[in-house]
Design brief:
heterodimer, A: 147 residues, alpha+beta, four-stranded antiparallel sheet, 2 helices, 8 strands, 31% strand, elongated, B: 201 residues, mainly alpha, 2 strands
């Protein structure tokens, strides 16, 4: 058990120091809708493919590649829920739905969650679930031993 | 190597989910008979560990990123059936909590990062540490190949060279994975060998 506790401490400590390189994105709007995508170290997802789908339509509204700084802009012409697909061609990317208002503006900005927040909350939730399973199983075993 | 939803066509989704969910069900059936409550904390910690290392990527040449998989390490600490359960749990948490990977592509991700390395593990485990190093490397490369193939079949990557690129990007990852697996397994064998209770196939 001591070994397991030490292993857990090691994982938690290491996770804080390791360098993240997942995908971060930010979607904002000015005159058009701006998509910025990068890996966790800030390296842009340069030249990744972008597909934009208008609300309730299967046909692509706009297709292109990001610039070398991992940026892409498009100008929506109708209100509703638009779909954005970004794909770097190596299995990395994201699909995000955004809402466009009547003035062709983004209803609210969209951001990805930083990797360290994902790790802390994920490890916490997993720990909680497995602790519950452990308690349930040991209690069941104890009940069987008594009967 | 986490394929998001919408990146695979329906045929690939059906085939990979069928294979992976069947394997998951069979693994659950097998460990249900032998699992003791004392193994649950270790499984929980390994799930958290896999969850963490798969979220931490590092850049490789070509402007992309790769991450460790950790399957063979878990395989040598628990065995094939527990490994499938642990990897699937970590992937499920990643997909449900943070859309890292997808729900429809859950089967494909289990197949690439769980089933393929475990098959290498089963094949090479008679050579102990050498087998661990080899299967960690080959598991990563073969997993990347299948990931690329699934994306190619689904027309998410337009030409076959995308698969070569994926394999090339995962060669450094495979080397780091092998080294990491070797160090950790050697350390655990030295200080706490009784923790390694590998299930028989």
């Amino acid at each position: 058990m001591q070994f397991i506790i030490l292993l857990e401490i090691a994982i938690l400590l290491t996770s804080g120091f390791l360098y993240g390189h997942g995908i971060n994105y930010r979607i904002t709007s000015g005159k058009g809708v701006v998509i910025e995508a990068s890996y966790d170290d800030g390296e842009p997802m340069a030249y990744s493919e972008v597909k934009i789908y208008p609300p309730d339509e299967e046909e692509i509204f706009q297709q292109g590649i990001m610039d070398r700084n991992g940026k892409f802009i498009f100008f929506p012409d109708t209100r509703g829920e638009w779909k954005i697909i970004v794909n770097d061609g190596m299995g990395h990317g994201f699909i995000k739905k955004i809402k466009i208002t009547e003035k062709y503006q983004l209803k609210e900005k969209a951001y990805s969650i930083p990797v360290y927040q994902k790790i802390i909350s994920g490890v916490g939730i997993i720990g909680l679930i497995f602790t519950i399973i452990y308690i349930l199983l040991t209690r069941k075993k104890g009940e069987n031993a008594h009967s | 190597m986490h394929i998001p939803d919408g990146f695979l066509n329906i045929e690939t989704v059906v085939v990979t989910n069928t294979i992976s969910i069947s394997t998951l069900g069979y693994s659950a059936h097998k460990i249900k008979k032998v699992i003791s409550p004392e193994r649950i904390p270790l499984m929980g910690i390994l799930t958290a560990f896999i969850f963490t290392i798969q979220l931490i990527s590092f850049p490789v040449a070509g402007g992309t990123s790769v991450h460790l998989i950790g399957t063979i390490l878990v395989f040598y600490l628990t065995g094939p059936f527990s490994t499938i359960i642990i990897i699937s749990s970590a992937l499920l948490f990643q997909a449900l909590l943070f859309q890292h990977g997808g729900i429809l592509t859950f089967g494909a991700n289990i197949f690439n990062m769980g089933i393929i390395p475990v098959l290498w593990g089963i094949l090479l485990r008679r050579w102990k540490l050498t087998g661990a190093v080899l299967s960690a490397f080959l598991g990563s490369i073969t997993g990347a190949f299948f990931c690329g193939l699934e994306l190619y079949i689904s027309k998410t990557i337009s030409n076959f060279s995308g698969i070569y690129m994926m394999i090339l990007a995962h060669i450094p990852e495979g080397i780091i994975e092998s080294f990491f697996t070797f160090i950790v397994i050697k350390l655990i064998y030295k200080i706490k060998p009784e923790i390694c209770k590998i299930e028989k196939v």
